[in-house]
Amino acid sequence: MARDATQVFAMVHPDDAVAVGQSVAASAQQMLPWRAEFRMCLPDGEQVWIEGHSSPVAEPDGAIAWHGTVADISERKRTERALLESRTRLAAVVANMTEGLVVCSDDGRLAEWNEAALAMHELEPARAAGLTLKQASALFELRTLD
To answer: Rounded CA gap, 41 and 46, in Å?
Structure first.
């Protein structure tokens, strides 16, 4: 069994190495649980995301033993990145719409709106934030196609 984690730390992605090292050092110094998400570079060149949880335990000889788990969270990170990209695209579409768009929360208050909706009714964001659906609907002219 290895007496230190030198080989493991050598696999931490260079962009994450300082932060991981600092978080481990802080955990050891304070003897508090450690948790981190970081990338590792595998021997075949693949990069994976790791989530680590560990607790430092003082050994009688003064060394610190670490008891914990690591998990590959690469798929979760890919999903989070795809969701962020999708949200960014949607936000750009909504922001650039010429039609007004408002979204209400479950309690019936305006939760989101685009600039076009505010401009159509000469509303300031602070005023729109306090409106209920009923109050907001009085501002909008509803039409049907005949």
So the answer is: 6
